[in-house]
Amino acid sequence: MAEPEILTIEELIRATETMVELPGLSKELGVRKIRVRRLGRTEYFGLLPPLPTEAEDWPADEFQARERAWLESIGPDELEGRRQALRDLDFRIVAKASLEPALTVDQARRLGDDAAVAALEILVFSRLRKPAAAVEATPDAAAETPGDAP
Amino acid sequence: MLPRFHLPITLGDTARSVLAADVLTGVFFAGFPNTVPLTECFDRETAQGKAGLQAGLEAWIDGLLTRVVVQPRLTLELVHRLGDARDELVTAYLRAIGWADEPGREAPTADGPLLVPARLEAEAVMMPARIAMALPAPNIRHALRLTAKRAYTPPHVVWTQWFISEFVWSWRVLLTDALLDRDGFHPELN
After folding, report:
1. Quick check: helix, strand or coil at residue B137?
2. With a CB-CB cutoff of 8 Å, which residues 34-73 of chain A face chain B?
3. What ipTM was assigned to the predicted interfaces of this complex?
4. Closest to B72 measured CA to CA, from B7, B165, B163, B13
5. pTM of structure
6. Among candidates A130, A134, A133, A136, which has minimal Cα distance to A148?
7. Which residue in A has a C-alpha nearest to residue B81's C-alpha?
8. SS3 sequence, chain A?
9. What is the span of the domain harbouring residue A138?
């Protein structure tokens, strides 16, 4: 049986990049977009503050309650560290995925609310989050989606 | 040593393949964590230890694909772009070298456009000094010692001269039966 054609770098790049519109900037300046690439699971999970390993075994319907209980059990410093990491998450996602222009974390902060929109689109494009419509259609999906875990 | 072989990959709806190589044992295990999920050693770790090992395993998978896929050559960033296809590739690779069995599925084949032998051999036996000289994690060192002892060869020969398919095959032939056979006691397996 013949093997499928060998993948080329050009194909890989084409399939893993997209344009994301920045609605806030677009209102002020006319349509403005950034070119972004797909993020890998390792990259994304590396940005998240870690949950305890046993969280993998938490059933989806108990996930939020178990997570809340676990968060209440950790110290204030660790809690503040987690909050800070989550506050920065959108900016770090945009900085990691942006190609044109390639943005630093500080430059991504300047996008303000646009950074949250762009980060969500990047995660959906990377299949790390389900599109908003799909999440609404299946209430349990949020607990099952890695992007919602923290 | 296996000839180069195709690994299937799906990007969107498009079926493609990449060409992969059997690599030296040290190249394969570079950066491999001391233990992995679904093992007794892993279960004994603390929550923090487990998280670190899991992250180490994910990073090793990313790095492995940069080392074993020869066409197209993948950088770490390109591996990150693969998304779910990354897991598809690494599973197929582990099946091809005999590490993982998947009943009912054939291992990837080698009937593709192979490179000319001279180039193939020159590339295949190159091992960066940082890998050749780095000591692997304790459990991998233990596995190397056992295999080398049974094969009457020094461990560094296994690390720097055996291909990973040869290591896996030899491990199975020399050691797996003994490890599984609790009554068949072998002092060196303790």
Report:
1. coil
2. 37-43, 45-46, 50, 52-54
3. 0.72
4. B7
5. 0.77
6. A130
7. A38
8. CCCCCECCHHHHHHHCEEEEECHHHHHHHCCCEEEEECCCHHHHHHHCCCCCHHHHHCCHHHHHHHHHHHHHHCCHHHHHHHHHHHHHHHHHHHHHHEEECCCCHHHHHCCCHHHHHHHHHHHHHCCCCCCHHHHHHCCCHHHHCHHHCC
9. 18-148
Note whether B80 contacts A6, CB cutoff 8 Å: no
Tell me the per-residue pLDDT of A65-112, one tens digit each, with 9 for 90 and over.
888 888 888 888 888 888 888 889 999 999 999 999 999 999 999 999
**Residue among B12, B51, B86 whose CB faces A50 most closely:** B51
Does A59 map to a domain?
yes
- The whole-angstrom separation of Cα B59 and Cα B66 is 11
Check pLDDT > 60 for residue B56: yes
In A, residues 62-121, which contact B (CB 8 Å cutoff)?
none
Distance in angstroms (rounded) separating the CA atoms of residues A109 and A92: 9
Instruction: Give dist(CA B168, CA B156) in Å, integer.
Output: 16
Three-state DSSP class for B116? Answer: coil
DSSP B185: -
One-letter amino acid for residue A69 of the chain:
A
Chain A's closest residue to B17, CA to CA, is: A6
Q: Which residues of B touch A (CB under 8 A)?
A: 6, 8-9, 11-12, 14-19, 47, 50-51, 54-55, 58-59, 61-62, 71-72, 77-84, 86, 109, 111-112
Dihedral through CA A83, CA A84, CA A88, CA A92, nearest 10?
Answer: -100
Q: Which residues of B touch A7 (CB under 8 A)?
A: 9, 11, 16-18, 72
For an interface test with A, the pick among B16, B19, B39, B90 (most A C-beta atoms closer than 10 Å) comes out as B16
Q: Does A5 touch chain B (CB under 8 A)?
A: yes
